[in-house]
Amino acid sequence: MNIDSLFSHIDQKPESGILYIVGTPIGNLYDISLRALNTLKNVSLVACEDTRQTKKIMNKYSIKNNLISFNMHNSIKKIPIIINQLKKGDSIALVSDAGMPSICDPGENLVREVKLNKLKTICIPGPCAALTALVSSGLESSKFIFEGFLPKKQNERNKILFDISKNTKTTIIYESPHRINKFLVELKNFCGGEREIQLYRELTKKFEEHMGNNINEVIENIKDKEIIGEITVLIRGINHSKNQDINLIILKNELNELINAGLNLSSASKYLAKKNGVPKNIIYNLY
Ligand code: SAM
To answer: At residue 121, what are phi and psi to the nearest 5 degrees?
Structure first.
């Protein structure tokens, strides 16, 4: 596609010595701004997570430019090189494979280093899977918690799952298709199967799919299916009155676990009271 005639209306050219953080599509190649394309075309250099991915969008819009790879594995080596180029007056665009750089993608370390070197950054915003799912959901969207990918270590995962079970705000999670079943079962263990969730698969792409209403239903929906593609999950926050009930159930379970592990009722209640900021007698009386 030749968009030179559209570019002719944009009078802004990238300025020297600036790192442009450029959002790119999360699937649909038409979801890119003219300003992003203009920048990719006119910077001195494009630093991209995977040059093959970035070439797809460059080719689509007949853009040619110098690409270098910048990813999790080579960032320590590449950051000083990029900083030097910026100091020499080059303008550089940073893109990830999809969506906004730095959001579960490489970028934040480079941006921090650019700022520490008193150089300038400008973000040219684009799509982000988390926000695309959020605004599609109708769940509370002005206040939310973004957890990205959950950690792999079980104790760290459990801590976050416990927090999610108590969150009053919408929580957004990124998950891979081969771990989604495990994640949903874990989520059910912490939140109960009735908790409202919405699962978004392949947003902005041809086979975009939305699934809801609650954890039980989504588990039922995907069981025995081969799930492929990219997934974002939203978990509804609990309202305050329900919050109280669910917290008490969770606390009761924790109390039982501690007592089964050998702690006496008084010590276990004292421990949980301190941990959760709840009066000890409330926990004591749960037993
Ligand atoms: N930087 C990206 C952004 O701005 O959303 C996120 C990159 S992260 C490495 C990739 C994860 O984002 C995927 O595993 C999936 O959880 C989520 N994701 C990306 N594209 C998606 C899409 N089209 N539909 C649903 N989720 C998506």
So the answer is: -120, 145
Cis peptide before 189 (omega within 30 of 0): no
Closest atom of ligand 1 to 149 CA is: 16
pTM of the model: 0.85
Question: Which of 3.40.30.120, 3.40.50.300, 3.40.1010.10, 3.30.1220.10 would CATH assign to domain 3-127?
Answer: 3.40.1010.10
φ, ψ at 147 (rounded to 5°): -100, -10
Residue in 21, 22, 24, 26 to alter for ligand 1 test, most ligand atoms within 8 A of Cβ: 26
Work out which ligand 1 atom sits closest to the CA atom of 174.
16
pLDDT tens digit string along 260-287?
999 999 999 889 878 876 667 777 877 7
Check if the beta carbon of residue 146 is closer than 8 Å to that of residue 187. no
